[in-house]
C-alpha cells in the first residue's frame, strides 16, 4: 500500500503488512525502483533477493511470525545507485550478535539459519542496521539500509 508521494520524484515509499503474502509486492516494488534506477538485470535480481531475505527476517525475528504490524519500504534513486530502507518497529536487531556462518563446515554440521544476513551482504554493496529508540513509552524501530551501486 503506497504512502503519499514525497516531493522528491526519486523517492518512493510503500507500507506492507508483515505477512509472507506481501513478499511478492515488496519484491516487485523494489525491482521497479531498481529498473527505474538503471541497474542491470542481474543487479535488479540481487535487489529482489536481498529485499525478500530482509523482509522475511523482519517477519520471523522482529515480529516472531506473521502479524498485522507494518514494514515500511523506501526506495531512493541516487546518482550512485539505489538505496533501499526497510523500517519496522519490532524487536530490536543487533547484527553484531549474529555469528558469521561457517561455510567451510560440512553441510550436516552447519548451524540451521544465520545465512540471511550473509546473503544480504553478498547481494548488496552496502548493508547497515540502526535502531532508533522510542520515546514516551513507544517502541523503537529497526532501520535496515541496503545500497546497490550502478555498474560503471
Overall description:
It is a single chain. This protein is an alpha+beta fold. It has one domain: Histidine kinase-like ATPase, C-terminal domain (Heat Shock Protein 90), CATH 3.30.565.10. It is built from 3 helices and 5 strands; from the N terminus they run βααββαββ. The protein has a 5-stranded antiparallel beta sheet with strand order 1-2-3-5-4, with helices on one face. A hairpin with a 3-residue loop joins strand 2 (70-77) and strand 3 (81-88). It is globular and about 35 Å long. The mean pLDDT is 87.
Overview features:
152 residues; alpha+beta; Heat Shock Protein 90; five-stranded antiparallel beta sheet; 29% helix
Task: Briefly say what this structure is.
The chain is of the alpha+beta class and 152 residues long. It has three helices and five strands.
Summarize the SSE layout with pairings:
Layout: E1 11-17, H1 23-36, H2 41-62, E2 70-77, E3 81-88, H3 116-123, E4 126-132, E5 141-149
Antiparallel strand pairs: 1-2, 2-3, 3-5, 4-5
Helix pairs in contact: 1-2, 2-3
What percentage of amino acids are in beta strands?
25-35%
Unreliable residue stretches: none
> Which topology does CATH recognise?
Heat Shock Protein 90
What Rg, in angstroms, do the CA atoms define?
16 Å
Q: Provide mean pLDDT, rounded.
A: 87
Distance between the termini: 34 Å
Number of strands: 5
Share of helix, binned: 25-40%
Quickly give the CATH architecture.
2-Layer Sandwich
Amino acid at each position: 500500500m503506497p504512502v503519499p508521494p514525497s516531493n522528491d520524484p526519486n523517492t518512493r515509499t510503500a507500507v506492507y503488512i508483515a505477512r509472507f503474502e506481501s513478499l511478492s509486492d515488496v519484491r516487485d516494488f523494489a525491482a521497479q525502483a531498481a529498473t527505474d534506477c538503471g541497474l542491470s538485470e542481474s543487479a535488479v535480481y540481487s535487489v529482489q533477493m536481498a529485499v525478500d531475505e530482509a523482509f522475511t527476517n523482519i517477519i520471523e525475528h522482529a515480529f516472531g511470525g506473521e502479524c498485522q504490524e507494518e514494514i515500511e519500504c523506501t526506495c531512493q534513486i541516487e546518482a550512485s545507485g539505489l538505496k533501499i530502507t526497510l523500517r519496522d518497529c519490532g524487536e530490536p536487531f543487533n547484527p553484531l550478535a549474529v555469528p558469521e556462518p561457517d561455510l567451510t563446515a560440512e553441510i550436516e554440521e552447519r548451524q540451521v539459519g544465520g545465512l540471511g544476513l550473509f546473503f544480504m551482504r553478498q547481494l548488496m554493496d552496502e548493508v547497515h542496521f540502526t535502531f532508533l529508540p522510542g520515546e514516551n513509552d513507544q517502541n523503537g524501530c529497526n532501520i535496515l539500509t541496503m545500497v546497490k551501486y550502478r555498474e560503471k
